[in-house]
């Protein structure tokens, strides 16, 4: 059976495309004017695949839009408009009201306008098409990472994966951490910045949905490079680090933060940008010639790691 991205590449990825960039990155690009691209993407969330049946509907409304916003940000764009298509088993007014409350809170927070969509009856499924804008000179492509680029990640990793494992009764941790983890799972917070300005300092990017290592691999494959990743530099909760639950961070997924690569001479500028915009960003490694990923422990020895990230068809 084909894996998820093999399925996309072999069945749906046809070339050449009539637009600037079609299938292959977090979003497609087509010209808006001489200086800007329209950035367009679509994500679908299905019950018991992307969220559990007991998920708070207000959080689900937020997450449905947030995961799409993350795709636009990863291309160096700012989100603008969204279309919502939702299938629900019944016209449960209370559930729909809570869902829409979360959706519109997220839209207001990130400056997105809901402009249309479709509603139908069926198994619970939410699909959002989102449109944003990016500067042509600063658009971030997976294929544009450069040798010796610094590798950066925003936010903190591993919490959402911990929350999911706990809800599936597969993991236990201190209660305050679990509460934080469930919130990270159900209400992800992509960074809130003018991405056109951050993109000007970077070369490539991807949003972290399937896990750090599998998502980084997409950049490596497109850019024909490798990477060194330093465990001690990865932003994670102290409890996860203390107990060395590294799979939550390396391949857990559902973080909806950004992984970016940038020239080393922009290191201080990125630190300043993060401080000025009150976002958390960590330099976790660098791009190499090796065409594979070396995960390096604090003692300098490699961490032998074989776990894979999320794959719909695995």
First-to-last CA distance: 8 Å
Strand content: 15-25%
Query: Architecture of the largest domain, according to CATH?
Result: Alpha-Beta Complex
- Mean pLDDT comes to 90
Low-confidence stretches: 309-314
Q: Supply the CATH class of the largest domain.
A: Alpha Beta
Characteristics:
single chain, 314 residues, 60s Ribosomal Protein L30, Chain: A, Phosphoribosyl-aminoimidazole Synthetase, Chain A, domain 2, 2 domains, 33% helix, globular
Could you explain how this protein is built, in words?
The protein has 2 domains: 124 residues, PurM-like, N-terminal domain (60s Ribosomal Protein L30, Chain: A, 2-Layer Sandwich), CATH 3.30.1330; 156 residues, Alpha-Beta Complex (Phosphoribosyl-aminoimidazole Synthetase, Chain A, domain 2), CATH 3.90.650. It has 10 helices and 11 strands. The protein is globular and about 55 Å long. Strand 3, helix 3 and strand 4 form a beta-alpha-beta unit. The longest helix is centred in the first third of the chain and has 18 residues. With 314 residues, the protein is of the alpha+beta class. The C terminus is likely disordered. The strands form 2 sheets. A 6-stranded mixed β-sheet has the order 7-9-6-10-8-11, sandwiched between helices.
Short description, anyone?
The protein is built from 10 helices and 11 strands.
SSE blueprint and pairings:
Layout (H helix, E strand, L loop, with lengths): L3 H9 L15 E4 L4 E11 L10 H18 L3 E11 L4 H18 L2 E9 L3 E11 L14 E5 L4 H9 L7 H12 L8 H5 L4 E4 L4 H12 L2 E5 L7 H5 L3 H5 L7 E5 L4 H11 L3 E8 L4 E4 L18
Parallel strand pairs: 3-4, 8-11
Antiparallel strand pairs: 1-2, 2-5, 3-5, 6-9, 6-10, 7-9, 8-10
